[in-house]
């Protein structure tokens, strides 16, 4: 099995720092435009890029985990290219990912003000993350920048596969923090009740950034899932 972790909107593969330490053979790619290359303009376009990435490397029996927008990419990948995959792990995500119009407006206003965007949005948002990881991650997020985050939120905003997730036959583990107010537990509950083979792990005391806030609990849930689907 090959474990691949896909980051979310405006982020980078390094958000999976603690997962990469635990699952040392896992791949944590940066999506195109984060910051190298050209951004994709829909979840489906990211999926096509990821399909090519998997094919080029000859990865087999892939277990695809994705955070937030990355979870949307994982779900869409399972619909479009199920043969690439052995299982899926959407984290802090959902089958529909509408974004508050006020967040989109904020990002439009900050498109040319990277420092203001860092000070008002990105630094406060990551205050719950381990300080060592903040030092690694924040400069990378700055390099990706507000325009990429806006691009990705627009991809999320038009993403809606609520009436199709029942077609996903792959084994799934859906993870969410109980304090997630960006993609509330209700979204994960929807996945757990509409995918034919989906378990749900609710991590207590964690927000949308659960993979960085509660890595031990997240890694142990993933470990258990990998054992289940290996048999
Ligand atoms: N899974 C299950 N239910 C979902 C869902 C999902 N992925 N997405 C939306 N719904 C539900 C909503 O909870 C709502 O249910 P209700 O009628 O019982 O209250 C219903 O479907 C309609 O939701 P929506 O179309 O999103 O419209 P809205 O007017 O309720 O809310 C937002 C729009 C943007 C305010 C809302 O989606 C939101 O608060 N999003 C989270 C904040 C955000 O911007 N997150 C960033 C995501 S990357």
Describe this structure in words.
With 231 residues, the chain is α/β, with parallel strands linked by helices. It has a single domain, classed as 3-Layer(aba) Sandwich (Rossmann fold), CATH 3.40.50. Helix content is 48%, strand content 13%. The protein has helices at 17-22, 43-57, 69-80, 101-109, 114-125, 131-144, 146-157, 185-194, 210-213, 215-230; strands at 2-6, 62-67, 85-91, 172-177, 198-203. It has a 5-stranded parallel sheet, sandwiched between helices. Helix 3 links the parallel strand 2 (62-67) and strand 3. Helix 2 (43-57) crosses helix 3 (69-80). The longest helix is centred in the C-terminal third of the chain and has 16 residues, at 215-230. The model has no long low-confidence stretch (mean pLDDT 98). The protein binds coenzyme A. The site of coenzyme A (COA) has 16 residues, from helix 8.
Unreliable runs: none
Instruction: Label the overall shape.
Output: globular
Read across the widest sheet, the strand sequence of neighbours is 1-2-3-4-5
Distance between the termini: 12 Å
Largest sheet: 5 strands, parallel
CATH class: Alpha Beta
Radius of gyration: 16 Å
CATH topology: Rossmann fold
H/E element string? EHHEHEHHHHEHEHH
């Amino acid at each position: 099995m090959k474990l691949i972790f896909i980051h979310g909107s405006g982020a980078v593969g390094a958000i999976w720092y603690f997962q990469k330490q635990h699952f040392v053979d896992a791949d944590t790619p940066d999506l195109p435009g984060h910051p190298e290359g050209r951004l994709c303009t829909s979840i489906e376009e990211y999926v096509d890029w990821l399909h090519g990435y998997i094919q080029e490397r000859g990865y087999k029996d892939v277990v695809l985990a994705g955070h937030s927008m990355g979870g949307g990419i994982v779900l869409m990948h399972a619909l479009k290219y199920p043969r690439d995959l052995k299982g899926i792990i959407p984290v802090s995500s959902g089958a529909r990912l509408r974004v508050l119009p006020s967040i989109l407006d904020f990002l439009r206003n900050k498109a040319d003000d990277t420092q203001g965007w860092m000070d008002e949005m990105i630094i406060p948002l990551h205050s719950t993350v381990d300080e060592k990881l903040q030092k690694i991650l924040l400069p990378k997020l700055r390099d990706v920048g507000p325009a990429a985050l806006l691009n990705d939120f627009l991809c999320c905003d038009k993403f809606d596969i609520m009436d199709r997730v029942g077609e996903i036959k792959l084994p799934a583990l859906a993870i969410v923090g109980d304090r997630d107010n960006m993609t509330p537990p209700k979204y994960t509950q929807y996945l757990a009740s509409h995918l034919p083979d989906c378990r749900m792990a609710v991590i207590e005391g964690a927000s949308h950034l659960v993979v960085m806030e509660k890595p031990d609990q997240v890694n142990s849930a993933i470990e258990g899932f990998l054992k289940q689907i290996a048999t």
